[in-house]
Amino acid sequence: MMRTSILAVCCLAFSAPLHAQSTRPVDWNALASETQQVLTDYIRINTTNPPGNELAAARFLKGILDREGIEAMILDTAELGAGRANLYARLKGNGTKRAVALIHHMDVVPVAPQYWSVDPFGGIVKDGYLYGRGTLDMKGSGIAQLMAMIAIKRSGVALNRDIVYIANADEELGSRGALIFVEKHQDLLKDVEFATTEGGDNSYENGQLRYVAVGAAEKRAIWQHLVVKGVPSHGSRPTKRNPVPKLIAALDRIAHWETPLRLTPVTTKYFHDIARFYPEPKRSWLMNISSALKNPKAREWIVSDVYWNAVLRNTISLTVVNGSNKTNVIPAEASADLDIRLLPDQDTTAFLAELKSVAADTSVHFTGLSIVKPSLASPPTSAFVSAVERAVKDRDPKVFVTTPMYTAATDRPTYQRAGIIAYGIDPFKVPSAELQSGMHGNDERLAVANIGWGVHFVYDILRHLQ
Ligand SMILES: [Zn+2]
Q1: Distance 429 CA to ligand 1 centre (A)
Q2: What is the Cα–Cα distance from 268 to 380, expressed in whole angstroms?
Q3: What spacing in Å lies between the alpha carbon of 147 and ligand 1's midpoint?
Q4: Is 166 helix (H, G, I), strand (E, B) or coil?
Q5: How far is the CA of 145 from the centre of ligand 1 (A)?
Q6: How remote is the CA of residue 180 from the centroid of ligand 1, in Å?
Q7: Cα 254 to ligand 1 centre (Å)
Q8: Segment 130-174, tens digit of pLDDT
Q9: What is the model's pTM?
């Protein structure tokens, strides 16, 4: 017995570098704990954007990659400005197939600490959850990707595709990290076939994973800043030249505008896929979504779901309003910001023209606040989607994979422009209510059990993709 095990160890030690297919088993429990610790340390690096501070995060990731013998580079520091950076690493395969890129953004949105029950950057574990800004969006995914790639290397999985790891700055504000990376480093991306980043949105309810989403489409943000100019004066003498009531009247018309409901091929497929979860008549409504939207009862039920409503129409959320900063002063101007999200195939110029006609006041001036990205259209079937399907079936044959539209913007369209097929994968099982409240909200958290599940899931996707 003793003799055999020594022999086995010797063989493994000598043959592993020559025969990469002789894989070493992964200790999944140990990997889960290690991943949790790395994520905790990563959460503690405050990368609130602005200012971002992603250079510290990039150095942290590079330190881990260096220790594992995976070559990593900190890039674009000059272009991104003080304290900012992108990171790039590559685990080499034999090059038989084109590479796959695992991409995440290092920055996070600001917090309102008074609404949190713990320090958002403390890396606190409470009631079985790791709390922290970025656990869901998207440091958790970034570390699941990192540790899955490291586990692939450690276990000696034979790679037909290189695995590229990219961490970008500034996704939450101007997306300059990805834009600069794609513009400057075509050479690093030219062999990349698939990329995956955020934008999945799995369905997980009542402790049951219902489907895994491979995000294949996304809405486009065209944020607008509205300004009405007026004449400043004393609040004790009301005038017609107060810009505040004018702005409010225009905003009220915009807020009551019911944009038309419209289907795209991706959303039609999505509703068809999920119809199985619902009893009649809802099942038939979703199976035949086009006619259901003409039925008032079905339509009312469908748009009552905030996600379904958002993938069926162009949406406008009124988020920022500014008038006077003093109660007794009529201000020189009043302004507001609109968070507008268009369906991927919507013509932006036509939409803005319609928005202005709804506002119906030429004294309201509109300025764009965001760079309008190209629309994301990735194929709903591919080797990547098949690899995800295999990884899902290994876990539960009842769970299926669908390819829905994502309502928020990601860096996928930027990578798509480099000739890469970009998808969204969320490697965790998170109830939709928790995503809705935690992402960009308060008490963002990830179940500790999810961390091990996620790293194993990404590992299996990468293995099946070889
Ligand atoms: Zn994000």
Answers
A1: 16
A2: 12
A3: 19
A4: strand
A5: 15
A6: 18
A7: 28
A8: 999 999 999 999 999 999 999 999 999 999 999 999 999 999 998
A9: 0.83
Residue 434 pLDDT > 80: yes
233 C-alpha to ligand 1 centroid (Å): 43
Q: Is 458 helix (H, G, I), strand (E, B) or coil?
A: helix
Ligand 1 centroid distance, CA of 407 (Å): 12
Ligand 1 centroid to Cα of residue 259, in Å, is 26
How many other CB atoms are there within 10 angstroms of residue 47's CB atom? 27
Task: Give how far Cα 466 sits from Cα of 97, 158, 192, Å.
Answer: 8, 8, 14
Q: State in Å: Cα 441 to ligand 1 middle.
A: 12
Centre of ligand 1 from the C-alpha of residue 55, in Å = 18
Domains of the chain with CATH codes: 23-218+375-464 (3.40.630.10), 223-259+318-369 (3.30.70.360), 260-313 (no CATH)
> 172 CA to middle of ligand 1, Å?
7
178-219 pLDDT tens trace: 999 999 999 999 999 999 999 998 999 999 999 999 999 999
The two tokens of residue 85 are: 């950076």
pLDDT single digits (tens) 254-273: 999 999 999 998 899 899 99
> What is the number of other CB atoms lying within 10 angstroms of the CB of residue 306?
11
